[in-house]
Amino acid sequence: MLTPEEVRGLSKDERATLLRALIAAGDADPLEEPQYRRRRWLALALLVSCCAWLVPWTVVLAFTLPQHFTAGQWAVAWIGFDVALTLAIGATAFAVWKRLQIAIFGQVVSGTLLVCDAWFDVWLSWGSGEFVLSVLTALLGELPLAVLLFLGARKLVLLTIHALWVREGRVGPEPRLWEVRLVAIGAPEKRR
Fold first, then answer.
1. Is residue 175 part of a domain?
2. How far apart are CA 24 and CA 186, in angstroms?
3. What are 149-163's pLDDT values in tens digits?
4. H/E run at residue 147
5. pTM for the whole structure
6. Which of 33, 40, 173, 175 is most buried (most C-beta within 10 Å)?
7. What's the pLDDT tens digit per position in 120-152?
8. How far apart are CA 109 and CA 21, in angstroms?
9. pLDDT per residue over 13-65, tens digit each?
10. What is the spatial distance between Cα 134 and Cα 122, in angstroms, rounded to a whole number?
11. How far apart are the C-alpha atoms of 101 and 108, rounded to whole Å?
């Protein structure tokens, strides 16, 4: 057993090697546990099923939806959406202020809601006197803010990877975002 003084006496490379050995010896990938492996396959099956159902459903809607429709609860729908957008942006701001990882999720949700808001504002105002204002609001407000939120989420994920990479004592280039596995950081493993 090494004492703290002996560990401090090791070179940086020796400490990094020791740290990697300790991590490899003690940390199993939680996603490899049977219950999580089953949940992963269930989630994949559900997501693929949703896509398989949505493709024909979208085609059916394309041919059957009326060109004009009067909605009885139009104001409630838009007010509810804007309340959700406000709450998402507010929660994201709080998470960023508190330096919480959930800020990544908040940025993705807020950015997605802003893209949806722009989409519906523009298309539902088509042919009306509000169309130009909707396009300007989308191009100058909602979409640029959504891009900033998506880029911010990406940057926080990359910073998290960097922090883990450094704390694990790894050297060399960090993996690209699409190479990082869930939960465990490290080089992607070959399928068994």
1. yes
2. 11
3. 999 999 999 998 888
4. helix 143-167
5. 0.76
6. 175
7. 999 999 989 999 999 999 999 999 999 999 999
8. 38
9. 888 788 777 777 766 666 677 887 888 889 889 989 999 999 999 999 889 88
10. 5
11. 12
Residue 60 lies in a domain: no
Phi-psi domain of 99 (left: phi exceeds 0; alpha: psi -120 through 50; beta: other):
left
| HSE value, Cβ hemisphere, 13 Å, CA-based, for 68 | 1
**Residue 139, token pair as written in the block:** 């191009």
Greatest alpha-carbon pair distance for the chain in Å reads: 77
pLDDT greater than 90 at residue 107: yes
- Residue 120 belongs to some domain of the structure: yes
Residue type, 166: V
Amino acid of residue 71? A
- Residues shown for the chain: 192
Give 23's contacts (C-beta < 8 A, 6+ positions apart): 168
The residue range of the domain holding 168 is 71-192
